[in-house]
User: Which sequence fits this backbone?
C-alpha cells in the first residue's frame, strides 16, 4: 500500500511519519497530484496546498486521479476545500473544516490560507488561519470567556485582515482600537495561550489516523463519472507529461539497474524501448483513454501471448520473478493497456524514424543489401517464391534449417509464441519470411 500525503504547515513531515508510513510531500501545487497519480499509488491525501504566488492544485488533476481508481482524501486546508468541491465525484473529505465548507458555512479560500516559510523551515506558519480563529473564538464563547456579541465582532475584525497578516496579536490590537469591551479582551488574552484551537492540525491528524481503516480491503474504485479530456486538460499535459520525474524507487535501484544493463550490452535498446513506452503512455493519457475491463484484459492476454506464459503456473512464476505484487501488477497492467492502445496509433511515427534508428545502430547498410539481394533474386524468378514442395522440403525441414543450421538455436516449444515474440502476426507470416531467407541463402551459395 502506497500513500502520498501533501502537507505543510498544518503538520510537519515528522509528525506525519510518526502517525503513518507514507510518502510525504510539501504543499500541493498545480501538477503535483497528477505526477503522483501517474505512479498509481493506493491513495493520495491532500492536507495543505499553495494559494498564492504558485498555481494551486487543479480540480481536473484530482478528477483524473479519481478516474484512475486512486482514492483521494482531503482535510484541514486546501484538502478540505477541494474535497468539499469534489466529494460528488468521489473525493473523500474528513474533519470539521471540510464539513464547514461542504455545508456552505465557509466559502472563501482565505479561511484556510496562511503565510508560511520555505521548505527548509518545515513550511512553518507565519500567520493564523481564519478558520482556526473562528473555532478558537467559538470555544471561548462556549467556555464563558467572551459573549456572543464580542465573538461576532472579533470574527468580523479578523476577516477584514489580509490572510498573511492575521494573528491573535493583530486581532487584539484591532479590537482595542475598535473599542470592544476591555474586560472581555483581557479575559480572552489570558485564556488564549492554553485555550486557542488549531482545528486544521486536528483535522489533519484525524485524516491520517482514519486512513488505514478507510483503505482496508479497498480495491480500485470505479469513478461515478466519465473523465473528459478537455482542450484545457490536454494543454496542461503538454507541460506536465514531458517533465522527468525521479521516483523514490528509481533513486534506490535505478542507477544500479542501468549499470547492469550496460554490462549486459542492452542499455541502448532498453532505453529506446522505454522512451517509446513513455510516449505511448502519454499519448493515451492525453487522449483520456478509459481503461475498461476489455482493454485491461486484452493487454494481459497479449502480454502472456508475447512471453509464452499460457500456463497459469508459468505466469505466476513470471510475476514473482518480476517482483509484481498486487499493487505493482495493477499499475503495470494499466500502463500495458495504454501502450497497447497507443501502439497502432504510433506505428506510423515509429516507422518514420526506423531508417535513422538503423543508421544510428550501424545496421542500415547491411540490412538494405539483403533486402535488395532478395528483390533481385525474386525478380529473376518472375516475382514468384517457390513453395516447400518445389524445394523438396517438408515444413519440419524448413524449421530445422532455420533454427539449428542457420541460427544455431534449439527448436522452440511453441512456434506461434516465438513468431509473435519476433513481431510476426501469425506463423504463416513467419514461415513466408523464413522461406525467403532459405531461398536467398541457397542462391548466395551457388
Assistant:
Amino acid at each position: 500500500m502506497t500513500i502520498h500525503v501533501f502537507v505543510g504547515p498544518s503538520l510537519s513531515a515528522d509528525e506525519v511519519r510518526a502517525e503513518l508510513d507514507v510518502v510525504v510531500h510539501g504543499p500541493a501545487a498545480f501538477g503535483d497530484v497528477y505526477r503522483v497519480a501517474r505512479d498509481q499509488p493506493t491513495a493520495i491525501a491532500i492536507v495543505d496546498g499553495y494559494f498564492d504566488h504558485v498555481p494551486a492544485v487543479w480540480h481536473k488533476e484530482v478528477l483524473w486521479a479519481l478516474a484512475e481508481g486512486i482514492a483521494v482524501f482531503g482535510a484541514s486546508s486546501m484538502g478540505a476545500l477541494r474535497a468539499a468541491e469534489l466529494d460528488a465525484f468521489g473525493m473523500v473529505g474528513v474533519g470539521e473544516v471540510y464539513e464547514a465548507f461542504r455545508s456552505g458555512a465557509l466559502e472563501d479560500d482565505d479561511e484556510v490560507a496562511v503565510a508560511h516559510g520555505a521548505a527548509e523551515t518545515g513550511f512553518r506558519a507565519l500567520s493564523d488561519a481564519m478558520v482556526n480563529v473562528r473555532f478558537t473564538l467559538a470555544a471561548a464563547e462556549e467556555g464563558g470567556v467572551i459573549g456572543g456579541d464580542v465573538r461576532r465582532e472579533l470574527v468580523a475584525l479578523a476577516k477584514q485582515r489580509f490572510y498573511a497578516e492575521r494573528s491573535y496579536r493583530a486581532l487584539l490590537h484591532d479590537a482595542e482600537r475598535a473599542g470592544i469591551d476591555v474586560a472581555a479582551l483581557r479575559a480572552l488574552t489570558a485564556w488564549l495561550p492554553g485555550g486557542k484551537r488549531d482545528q486544521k492540525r486536528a483535522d489533519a491528524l484525524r485524516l491520517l489516523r482514519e486512513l488505514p481503516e478507510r483503505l482496508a480491503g479497498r480495491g480500485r474504485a470505479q469513478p461515478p463519472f466519465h473523465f473528459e479530456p478537455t482542450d484545457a486538460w490536454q494543454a496542461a499535459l503538454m507541460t506536465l507529461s514531458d517533465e522527468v520525474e525521479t521516483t523514490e524507487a528509481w533513486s534506490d535501484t535505478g542507477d544500479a539497474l542501468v549499470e547492469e544493463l550496460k554490462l549486459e550490452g542492452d542499455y541502448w535498446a532498453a532505453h529506446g524501448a522505454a522512451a517509446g513506452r513513455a510516449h505511448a503512455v502519454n499519448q493515451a493519457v492525453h487522449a483520456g483513454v478509459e481503461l475498461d475491463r476489455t482493454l485491461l484484459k486484452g493487454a494481459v492476454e497479449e502480454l502472456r501471448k508475447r512471453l509464452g506464459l499460457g500456463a497459469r503456473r508459468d505466469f505466476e512464476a513470471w510475476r514473482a520473478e518480476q517482483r509484481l505484487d498486487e499493487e505493482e501488477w495493477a499499475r503495470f497492467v494499466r500502463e500495458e493497456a495504454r501502450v497497447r492502445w497507443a501502439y497502432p496509433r504510433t506505428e506510423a511515427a515509429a516507422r518514420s524514424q526506423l531508417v535513422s534508428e538503423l543508421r544510428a545502430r550501424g545496421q542500415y547498410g547491411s540490412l538494405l543489401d539483403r533486402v535488395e539481394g532478395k528483390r533481385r533474386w525474386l525478380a529473376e524468378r518472375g516475382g514468384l517464391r517457390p513453395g516447400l514442395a518445389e524445394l523438396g522440403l517438408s515444413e519440419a525441414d524448413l524449421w530445422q534449417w532455420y533454427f539449428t543450421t542457420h541460427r544455431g538455436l534449439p527448436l522452440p516449444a511453441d512456434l506461434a509464441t516465438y513468431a509473435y515474440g519476433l513481431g510476426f502476426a501469425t506463423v504463416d507470416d513467419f514461415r513466408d519470411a523464413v522461406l525467403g531467407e532459405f531461398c536467398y541463402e541457397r542462391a548466395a551459395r551457388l
